[in-house]
Specification:
29% strand; alpha+beta; globular; Aminopeptidase; 7 strands; 180 residues; 6 helices
């Protein structure tokens, strides 16, 4: 599988709206899919006003999902919440992701997308020493994709869930930068 990752633009809003409204995404992401909400959620990153990266994952020329990337130091409240469950340390970064096309879910595409994005992180961000990701424990497919991508489970603990009604328990997974 050949992945490319390109920054989200406002031209992607209709695609994001469709993906965010899909039940398999909406269940875990809890972002509204109307144009104003999408602007609120993604506009600051597009404009460079928020220190994160939102990328469209493109597989063989077709947009198939979203990957978000940030450094923990840029989000101290999240770093503090995560540190209560598992220390993140200097150089820690995180990702979040989804496959928008339900037909590709459960076929290894998510794992391949994560592996490809991790390689991009190591190649483009010398600050990143390790990637730490917290996933709701009930989202088994997501944290198993991380395990299949080489992450290891380092902690379990309670964190604020992304969606109302979800359990507070999260799996925390980590992948260290390979030795040179």
């Amino acid at each position: 599988m050949q992945f490319e990752f390109r920054p989200i633009t406002r031209d992607d809003y209709p695609l994001l709206a469709r993906w965010l409204a899909a039940p398999h995404v909406e269940q875990w992401w809890n972002l509204r899919s109307d144009p104003d909400s999408i602007e609120d959620d993604f506009g600051d990153v597009i404009d460079g006003e928020e220190p994160a990266q939102d990328s469209i994952a493109v597989l063989d020329g077709e947009p198939i999902g979203l990957v978000q990337y940030c450094r923990f130091v840029d989000y101290p409240e999240y770093m503090e919440e995560m540190a209560a469950v598992s220390p993140v340390g200097h150089g820690a970064v995180t990702i979040d992701y989804f496959i928008g096309d339900l037909d590709r879910v459960g076929r290894g595409v998510g794992t391949a997308m994560i592996i490809a994005f991790v390689q991009r992180v190591w190649a483009t961000d010398p600050y990143a020493t390790h990637i730490v990701v917290a996933v709701n424990s009930d989202n088994v497919g997501s944290w198993k994709a991380l395990l299949n991508a080489g992450f290891r489970l380092v902690a379990r603990g309670e964190m604020e869930p992304d969606a109302p009604g979800h359990d507070r328990m999260h799996e925390v997974l980590r992948l260290d930068r390979p030795a040179a």
